[in-house]
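Hey, I'm writing a tutorial for new members on how sequence and structure tokens pair up, and I'd like a real worked example in the thread rather than a made-up one. If someone can provide the structure for the chain below, I'll link this post from the tutorial.
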Amino acid sequence: MSTFGTAFGSAASPARGIGPNDHLVANAGTDATSSLSWSPAANILVSSSWDNSVRVWEVQTQNIAPGQTQVMATAKALVTHLKPVLDTCFSPDGGTVFSGGADNAARMYTLGQQQGLATQIGVHDAPIKCIGFCKNLNLLVTGGWDRQLKFWDCRSQTPVGQFKMPERVYAMDVCEDKIVVATAGRHVIAYDTSKGPTEIYKKESPLKYQTRCITCFPDLSGFAIGSIEGRVGIHYFQKIGPNGKDSFAFKCHREQTNTYAVNAIAFHPVHKTFVTCGSDGVINTPPILRPKQKPLILPPPRPANVFNTWDKDNKQRLKGFPALQRPITAAAFSTQGDLFAFASCYDWSKGSSHAQQGNDIFIHPVNEEEVKPKSKS
């Protein structure tokens, strides 16, 4: 572990967020950001990156004018893995950061620790793609490309339990007493942990193509799932009563004939609306063509939306934000819902010929009108 400052930095890139008071986090990493997590107890932001690192910031806010908030993030720690880090989460008290990645290891780091590497607490036979903490079981949960879902007591490096998944774990969310897991092959499995991990749901994804993200509803009645086809599925575990809500899917992050992956879905903790973030960044330069390769027709720069806020209960979009130059790979609301962090970097969705330099993390002060459901007329 070490603190970091000017010795680290991303490639030069336009520092433009989605609002005039967005804060550009300094030294976000030298490769793409894979996840963002907020502490449940304080304004502490953690990122994981393909540059083998976990970074920690303390975030402070100040009201500078009516309706205007100034944000400042101060670097607190840099923790390293042996290979790219793919996901992070916090302990319920916000005092410990957990991380997992391509070195197959689950590690933990105590905030304020002055020296030493993060402690390894578990291992998979393949990269750990997802990590979360189950509060009511007091166990860490990891999902890997070895088709295993494992549960860990942080005092032991032997899992206290594990489930065989039908395929590699691609996405996961741990929320209160629910765990939802999405794997390759479009499988979705959900568990209720109120009386120990019990499978309550196992079906194919309501979407037709590969899953990129999955998130529990705040009321735990179902989940939102996003895929590479530019669609989001709103799915309930079961109907409640004769007028129960139906599951549905909708298109987003599409522009004419161009389709972009939905990389992240984040629910607002107060208003229960949600944000979708995608790969639909503006392409500034065409790819380098190989001999005999047909020219690739690229869409012109456009005022598309990389961010959209949605109200699933009323089935309406609340707000669209202007596109950034690069895809959005990760996003998260703070526990109070007044801050929204997002990462802008290349996600390799268009291959190496379209690679874009730079990795930025922004913190956006949330205005209530951006996330509050519209009143019914």
